[in-house]
Every structure is written in structure tokens, then in C-alpha cells.
Design a protein that fits this description.
Elements: E1 2-7, H1 15-30, E2 33-37, H2 41-46, E3 49-51, H3 75-82, H4 85-92, E4 96-101, H5 103-114, E5 120-123, H6 139-160, E6 163-168, H7 175-183, E7 188-190, H8 198-210, E8 216-221, E9 237-238, E10 244-245, H9 249-261, E11 265-269, H10 281-300, E12 305-310, E13 313-318, H11 319-322, H12 331-337
Parallel strand pairs: 1-2, 1-4, 4-5, 5-12, 6-8, 6-11, 7-8
Antiparallel strand pairs: 2-3, 9-10, 12-13
Helix pairs in contact: 1-10, 6-7, 8-9
The protein binds 6-O-phosphono-beta-D-fructofuranose.
6-O-phosphono-beta-D-fructofuranose binds near residues 125, 222 and 275.
Length: about 350
């Protein structure tokens, strides 16, 4: 068989581990040829690819990013190409395609599948917000980075008697904020799922200082927002790429707390640090398992599905099921954190 692989959307630690696993299983066990499309779906549409043999994936298990490159989807061009899926497949001559990506990538994978392309998806995102899978690789690494940052910030915060507002990734779902906030012992956690009131955070900080504590750390997801009328937090401007550019919630909240508390506060935006660098052992193992199962599914002809972690098992689930809604943090998980929301 000739199997195509691509990585699309925002990168994530563990992508190379999946690619390596696919190549090892497909080449060694089945004698397949694996081709890697460059820069996500752009490479598929342009017919830009290279052969991935064992040497091509040697030494990449622990490497962050993706050796294939990635890009965001050009929707209009992609939809037009789906109209002639047969030509798309013939252009590169593959028998099966394994797209590795997040919600956008898997939605596109579903479109390809509906158009008749033999597709098996592999979910990835540091946000852990893809429904149908209990975990995505990359999440554990991101949580580890954010936790370590909070551990470090506590010592400098205490020295200067400051409030640290740590902004982590998560535009629509607050999984990274929830778990890193819990692991890092944040005194307040703000998630996109539940609007927060800065007055509650002020109360929490004042209570801490009144019992002799000299600092506070608040973990806020980038998509968290204040409750209506609780704080002035405006909209940003749209830049030349169509992205909204505005003062992020971490910065806005730090300044707001500083003003209300009369104590120094500092925003710390962790940003893409959470997505870079080497994956944790957990993410390497999950990524490797997903790659292995994706190849098995290809050889069983189970197309239109993606790999998913259910409990401790890897299963195949329909792409249609996976991309209908985002997996957000439920109320009971927020309550377990026992923090200020
Ligand atoms: O979806 C993964 C993610 O890292 C989000 O947490 C974040 O909001 C977004 O991607 C950042 O995207 P970009 O790399 O395009 O700035």
C-alpha cells in the first residue's frame, strides 16, 4: 500500500512520534510505502510530498514540532479540491491518507472521507478539547510546562509580595488551565467555560494576605472572560491575517487586580512555550499508540474513523462523531479544583 501522512493546524509535541510510529508499523510490518505531505493540506493539494522510510524518521521520537511542517487550512481551496477527490488521490497516488490534527484538520478529514477518499484520522491538540477521545497527546506536555512555570513564579512572587497572573493556552476549553492550575497550586483558576468575577479574585488575594501569605498565583485560560459588567474588557482589532489582536485576558486581569488591590501584579503569558520542545513520556507513548492503530485501521479498511483513547484502550471512532462538538470542562471537574472561578 501507499499511505499518505500529513500534519495540519497548530503543531503539538508528539506529532513526530506519530509519524515515526506510522512509518515503522507500515514499512516494517506490511512493506508499505509511506509518503509525507509537506505543510499540511497545502502539500496534499499541491502534490508536494516526500517518501518517509525508516531513516527519514530516525531520531525524531523526542523532537517537538513536526518534520513535515504544518499550515492552517485554506478552506475555499480545500472545498474545491474535495469536489474532485478522485483527481486529488490520483495526483499523489495514495491508497490511504492519515491526517494528524485538531478539530479543523479532522473536519477537513471528514470532508475528504465524505468525498470518497480513504481516510483514517489521528487527533492532536495541546488543548485536549476533541470529543470522543479521553486524551490528546501534547496536552500532558503543555500542562507540565505551565505547571513548572507556576512553581517558578511562586518563588519570585513571594520575594516581591506580588500577584502573578499566568495566562495559558485554551481559547474555547480550559483543560490546560484547570490541570496546570491544580498541579501548580494556583489560588485562582479562570476558564472559558465559566465567566469569572474579578471581585472574587480580589477577595481571595486579600484573604491570603490577611493570614500572612505574601503572594498569589492566578491561572487564566486565554479564552476566559469576565462576567458581564464585572470588568472593562474590550474587543481587539482585526489584523492583516484576520486574527483578533487585543490585550489578552492575562494582562488585562493583572492590571485590573493591581488597581483594585493596590498591590503589584504581573502578567505572564506562556503562549507558544507550551507547544514547543520535547514531548513528555506520556505523550510519546500515546502518539506512538495512535500511529500504530491508525496503520492497523488502514489495513482493516476502517476508513472514515479516527483513533481515540477510551479509558486505557485505543479504539476507532467515526470522524463524524469526533468533530461535532468541542469537549469543554464540565462543572464537576471545575468543582474538584476548589478554586475561585
Ligand atoms: O489549538 C491549539 C492552540 O495552541 C490554542 O491553544 C491556541 O489558542 C492556538 O492554538 C494558537 O494558535 P496560533 O499558533 O495560530 O497562534
Amino acid at each position: 500500500m501507499r499511505i499518505g501522512v500529513l500534519t495540519a493546524g497548530g503543531d503539538c509535541p508528539g506529532l513526530n512520534a506519530v509519524i515515526r510510529s506510522i512509518v515503522h508499523r507500515a514499512v516494517t510490518n506490511y512493506g508499505d510505502e509511506v509518503i509525507g505531505f509537506e505543510d499540511g493540506y497545502a502539500g496534499l493539494l499541491d502534490g508536494r510530498y516526500r517518501t518517509l522510510d525508516l531513516n527519514a524518521v530516525s531520531g525524531i521520537l523526542a523532537r517537538g514540532g513536526t518534520i513535515l511542517g504544518s499550515s492552517r487550512l485554506e478552506r475555499a481551496r480545500f472545498a474545491a479540491a474535495c469536489d474532485n477527490a478522485k483527481a486529488l488521490v490520483e495526483k499523489s497516488g495514495f491508497d490511504a491518507l492519515i491526517p494528524i490534527g485538531g478539530e479543523g484538520t479532522l473536519t477537513a478529514a471528514r470532508m475528504l472521507s465524505d468525498a470518497g477518499v480513504p481516510v483514517v484520522g489521528v487527533p492532536k491538540t495541546i488543548d485536549n478539547d476533541i470529543s470522543s477521545t479521553d486524551r490528546t497527546f501534547g496536552f500532558d506536555t503543555a500542562v507540565g510546562v505551565a505547571t513548572e512555570a507556576m512553581d517558578r513564579l511562586k518563588t519570585t512572587a513571594e520575594s516581591h509580595q506580588r500577584v502573578m497572573v499566568v495566562e495559558v493556552m485554551g481559547r474555547h476549553a480550559g483543560w490546560i488551565a484547570l490541570e496546570s492550575g491544580m498541579a501548580g497550586g494556583a489560588h485562582g483558576i479562570c476558564l472559558p467555560e465559566r465567566p469569572f468575577d474579578p471581585a472574587d479574585l480580589v477577595k481571595m488575594v486579600e484573604e491570603r494576605f490577611s493570614r500572612g501569605k505574601k503572594f498569589a498565583v492566578i491561572c487564566v485560560a486565554e479564552g476566559a472572560h469576565p462576567a458581564e459588567g464585572s470588568m472593562d474588557y474590550g474587543k481587539g482589532e482585526i489584523d492583516q491575517f484576520g486574527h483578533e489582536r487585543f490585550q489578552g485576558i492575562g494582562t488585562a486581569l493583572a492590571y485590573e487586580l493591581e488597581r483594585r488591590l493596590g498591590k503589584e501584579a504581573r502578567p505572564v503569558i506562556l503562549g507558544h512555550v507550551q507547544r514547543g520542545g520535547t514531548p513528555t513520556a506520556y505523550d510519546r507513548v500515546l502518539a506512538t499508540r495512535f500511529g500504530w492503530h491508525a496503520v492497523e485501521a488502514v489495513h482493516r479498511g476502517e476508513f472514515g474513523n479516527m483513533t481515540a483513547l477510551r479509558g486505557t484502550d485505543v479504539r476507532m471512532v467515526p470522524l463524524a462523531e469526533a468533530v461535532t462538538r468541542l469537549k469543554t470542562v464540565p462543572e464537576d471537574r471545575m468543582r474538584e479544583a476548589e478554586s475561585v472561578f
